[in-house]
Amino acid sequence: MFKRIESFKDLGKESCFLWGPRQTGKSTLLKNLFPNSPYYDLLLANEFRRLTGNPSLLREELLAMQLENVPVIIDEVQKVPALLDEIQWLMVNKKISFILCGSSARKLKRTGANLLGGRAMRYELFPLVSKEIPDFDLLRALNHGLLPRHYLAANPKKMLEAYVSDYLKEEIAAEALTRNVPAFARFLEVAAFSNGEVVNYNNIAQECGISAPTVKDYFQILFDTMLGFTVPSYRKNPKRRIVQAPKFYYFDLGMTNFLLKRGEITPGSEIFGRAFEHFIFQEILAHSHYSGKNYQISYWRTSSGLEVDFILGEHEVALEVKGVPEVKPHHLKGSKAFCDEYKPKKSIIVSLDQRPRMSGEISILPVKDFLERLWKGEII
Questions:
Q1: Residue 102 belongs to domain spanning
Q2: pLDDT tens digits for 269-300?
Q3: Given the DSSP bridges, would you call strands 297-301 and 247-250 parallel, antiparallel or unpaired?
């Protein structure tokens, strides 16, 4: 149903890692793109036990196959780090290419596993984006989130509850990323209140009853498992006093909604603007990676309260997000201040306006127009 943008167009004969949070659709994508590839799924208990007990079986089996220009797919590769030595030998000596798929490289790094010495490219799969969804529905995305099963569900609440529970059980407890799983579960809820906001480690630590260094460790677990991202402050040659701490976003709106126990999100409601900004962040984050441009995303906020939600690249684009039906002059203050100081190539406000318009040097784009231009490569 969903035609994913990620197509491994640069894969060629090289091997790669494909990382992404659980249920973003990694396995489905790989099976659709490479239906003739040998496929090893380490989530299957018998496959896991077999290859854990004797990693060399992988080499012996692949050498017995007639592989015709297709990659070998290893799903959840982080579960059996010892396979990577066998994989490297096959890459170097037999020119076999691999797609190594998983939700996190954290376990591989912690155990000192072989990360193939830079021989494998890195790809990432994010939740769905607007371009991948036929008849995209903004309100459905804001309320359900953009994991494929959740977006399609009539009521995703139970799915989201199971998702968080499975993450704690399979990703955190099973991989022993922290010994105190109940404290980490509490941290997930408290961190949701910082979604889209500047992070204050001390405040979160007090709420959770843990130390600030532990909070930083917990955030790092979110970053390593791709369930959270930071947006740094834009600091280039500031003429004003600026806020320097990073902002934090969960990887998907649905998880944030569940952790915050939000009700229905509708235009004009108090939470609509926050959810709308989060959605636009998800779109530009995915676009940065899928386009191959890998531009930095930062934000700008002065100590007096002037703000631009997202600065793309080296201030090529200043992007504000306003969940209002019509952008008014007072909504332009942050963008105007940033334009005066940095002269970006483009200054854009994405909103619920009916038609595109210009206010001086600032473009005001309806969300539909912005998304179309973004994925056509016309924004940056």
A1: 15-124
A2: 989 999 999 999 999 999 999 999 999 999 99
A3: unpaired
**Token pair listed for 377:** 């490569």
Taking only the tens place, the pLDDT of each residue in 2-53 is 999 988 876 656 789 999 998 999 999 999 999 999 999 999 999 999 999 9
- Structure tokens belonging to residue 274: 């926050």
Residues 195 and 89 in one domain: no
3-state helix/strand/coil string of 145-183 = CCCHHHHHCCCCHHHHHHHHHHHHHHHHHCCCCCCCHHH
- Does one domain contain both 151 and 254? yes
Query: In this model, does residue 239 exceed pLDDT 90?
Result: no
What percent of the chain stands above pLDDT 90? 77
Residue 93: exposure state from Cβ atoms within 10 A (0-12, 13-18, ≥19): exposed
DSSP reduced 3-state for 16: strand
Answer yes or no: do 184 and 112 share one domain. no
Classify residue 108: in a domain, yes or no.
Answer: yes
Neighbour order of strands in the sheet with 307-312: 297-301, 307-312, 317-321, 346-351, 362-366, 357-359
Asked if 210 and 268 touch (Cβ cutoff 8 Å), the reply is no
Shared-domain flag, residues 134 and 175: yes
Residue at 349: amino acid letter: I
CB 156 within 8 A of CB 32: no
Whether residue 77 is found in the same domain as residue 149: no
Asked if residue 278 is part of any domain, the answer here is yes
- The C-alpha atoms of residue 217 and residue 191 are separated, in whole angstroms, by 13
Residue 6 forms part of a structural domain: no
Give the separation between CA 68 and CA 59, rounded to whole angstroms: 16
Whole-model pTM: value is 0.93
Give the single-character DSSP code of 137. Answer: -
Q: For residues 323-338, b (16+ Cβ closer than 10 Å) or e, as one string?
A: bbeebeeebbebbbbb
Query: For residue 210, how far is the Cα from the chain centroid?
Result: 27
Q: Indicate whether 46 belongs to any domain.
A: yes
